[in-house]
Write a structure and sequence with these properties.
alpha+beta, Structural Genomics Hypothetical 15.5 Kd Protein In mrcA-pckA Intergenic Region, Chain A, Pseudouridine synthase, four-stranded antiparallel sheet, 7 helices
């Protein structure tokens, strides 16, 4: 941590001009630090327009521009980019990484920050970056980010109108012989950090997606649709392909538990996780049908 104590002779000037004189950082670089909250004055986040007083203390870990960007480059070595254009970027997430974090200690390791760092290092605008779908921390696979507000709105509309095909693969406990379509309401229980499945119903044949979305999804904040297709059987488990038409919290994990075939390795919804270190769930493929874009994760198990 760099600490600079402001003398009476240095008081009365804006912190941005002060740092331009005292460090090797450019104006663009320093503005980036202020936006990220990486410059503190008296242990509080500072704005670039702040006027310094005698006795103030400026604090930051990142005032050396060269060192800062060298630190950014190292975490990018394992960033797997699956697709990128001017509007969006898709990356593979491992089971240990959070998309967002409020913890300053984990701030730089959050996926959204690593992607922002990649954009900065490749000289792309990084002021706006937003994930357009949910993926749990313990789930591996695709996370799709919008680079602009307009792209975020358009992509979100695609997801909510059923114009995106989102497919997972999972290893489920027990032998699931036939494909099933599950409709259920999913209600969040924030105090328990889990969800409750109600109005659970199973159909042998899935309805038409567009008709179901217009009839059921638009009129409910809790209804979910999950299509589960067994691929092959292991000793006492099933490798399955799972397509979700809705993106409810913990949807696949909770629905599979209610079905009697919880995801292997899931510590929250599978009481017998067989000692597996991680849950066997991968966000495997996303097809953006209006754009003709197909994105596939490199994870296979």
């Amino acid at each position: 941590m760099i600490r600079i104590n402001i003398s009476p002779e240095e008081s009365g000037q804006k912190i941005l001009k002060f740092l331009l004189r005292r460090t090797d950082g450019t104006k663009v670089f320093l503005f980036k630090l202020f936006r990220k909250g990486l410059v503190l004055v008296n242990r509080k986040r500072a704005q670039a327009s702040l006027v310094l007083d005698a006795g103030d203390q400026v604090q930051s870990d990142s005032l050396n521009e060269k060192i800062y960007f060298n630190k950014l480059a190292r975490p990018l070595e394992d960033l797997v980019i699956l697709y990128e254009d001017e509007a969006m970027i898709a990356v593979d997430k491992d089971e240990k990484t959070l998309v967002h974090t409020a913890n300053r200690k984990d701030y730089s390791s959050a996926l959204v920050e690593r992607v922002k760092n990649y954009l900065s290092l490749t000289h792309q605008p990084s002021g706006f970056l937003a994930p357009v779908h949910r993926i749990d921390r313990n789930t591996k696979g695709i996370v799709l980010f919008a680079k602009t507000y307009i792209a975020a709105k358009d992509l979100s509309d695609f997801f909510h109108s059923g114009k995106v095909k989102k497919t997972y693969t999972a290893v489920l406990k027990g032998i699931l012989k036939d494909p099933v379509f599950v409709e259920a309401d999913i209600q969040r229980l924030p105090e328990e950090n889990r969800v409750k499945v109600t109005n659970f119903s199973i159909l042998d044949k899935a309805p038409l997606k567009a008709e179901w979305m217009s009839r059921r999804y638009v009129s409910s904040k809790t209804v979910s649709a999950t299509l589960i297709r067994p691929l092959f059987h292991l000793e006492n488990s099933t490798k399955a392909e799972i397509e979700i038409w809705t993106g409810r919290h913990h949807q696949i994990r909770a629905v599979c538990e209610a079905l009697g075939h919880p995801v292997e390795g899931d510590r929250k919804y599978n009481k017998e996780n067989n000692g597996l270190k991680g849950q066997s769930l991968i966000c495997k493929k996303i097809i953006l049908e209006p754009l003709g874009v197909v994105i596939e994760s490199k994870y296979n198990d």
